[in-house]
User: Fold this.
Amino acid sequence: MAKFQTVFLCQSCGYQTPRWMGRCPDCGQWGSLLEERLASERHGGVRSGSSTARELPTPITAVDVRALHRISSGLAELDRVLGGGIVPGSFVLLSGDPGIGKSTLLLQASMQIAIREGTVLYVSGEESPEQTRSRGSRVGPLSDRLLLLAETSLQVILDQAERLRPKVLVIDSIQTIASEDLESPPGSFSQVREAAWRLMALAKDKGVSTIVIGHITKDGSIAGPKALEHMVDAVVFMEGEGHQVHRLLRTMKNRFGPTPEVGVLEMTDKGLRELENPSEVFLSQRPAGASGSIVIPTLEGSRPLLVELQALVAEPGTPIPRRVFNGVDGNRGALLLAVVEKRLGLRLSARDVYVNVVGGVRIGETAADLGLAAAVLSSARNLPLDPGLAVFGEIGLAGEIRAVPMAEQRIREAGHLGLSHCLIPRHNLERAQSAFSTVRVTGIRSLEELARELEPH
Ligand code: TYD
Ligand code: MG
Assistant:
């Protein structure tokens, strides 16, 4: 057994220090340094032992790219965010809030891969095989080639994986696994890192594609998957509002495909389902003739997606007016309300303002600015908007409308969904105005022009 030394390890970024501090000097997180005992001799990183053929330098022309044949997960949206399927020998992290559907997604994928491709080993440290089976029989056909292992010992898992050499290994979740060589508890930074290193070595050396689930929790005692992000080949986030049925898969990093990329799924009583046309679903329940509702063509990865944004401006229910932003960044939202108030003379600061993006979508781009302004204006003036209208554009502090990327794709998506009019930044107009024959495109320069365009003609 190796000798142990005590260090304080940041559970968020892995920074090490011999003494305790309230705040990690590296990543700035408060209360994230925890005492851990490390084996003084580490296991030599990702690879150990003598060089194998694959470690010798190779001429680039001699590299066999057929090795990159990808394994389909059976779910087109998951394949899409992975860049076209699972790359053999790759190591992927799937993370997301508890209860969002990570286990369901990977169980469904495992079942499909077992049927089409070969052995899959699904290791669960959280659920018994009985639980996994009963979930499995709900979501699809079972196969003998899907092997379940309820285990938390890293050594046992590695032994079994080595013996079986499955096509795909699923670890649910990395936070439940612990190595007997370390004294720190499961989920601690050193355990997570150790498990990740050893599993990655297996993936790379034996070509076992591995997908690990990593929970995000606000509790600092669990190693944030942040620490893993640097090590793995791809990071996929699963998102969605708890009470909504839509789930977004979002790739933040991918050594084998483009990022950011997005997939859209729907949680049903038979597991996760793909959506034929996500935009259609996000717009299906739009209220007719109501004020405060607008369609925004947003870009989710390389994919344009139409979403409905709603705003409600109301007399304040409390002495301090409330600001609620769902699906858009709160700071950005507050800034936009200030600009709209000043430029259009709307009395917003004395009133409650609620903003909501329908369907659990979170918009992270400034192209949604114009939509937020339009919805707020529409609600504040009780002015229903043309139901065939979509808007996008960034708003500057002077109330100017600034150009955004991929205007043509946004207009085309609006056209496909039957919308008839787009308000876009004037600077985007020249190249974008003929993007779709049935969509009239109007370029605007300022919030004042937006207000004029929204008035009934
Ligand atoms: P789960 O995959 O266990 O989440 P995670 O692994 O991310 O913690 O999913 C949990 C939720 O999904 C649970 O609330 C039940 C729901 N669910 C369905 O709605 N339909 C289904 O077919 C399944 C299997 C789960
Ligand atoms: Mg789970």
Notes: The longest helix spans residues 189-206. Residues 102-103, 126, 172 surround magnesium ion (ligand 2) (CB under 6 Å). The first strand starts at residue 4 and ends at 10.
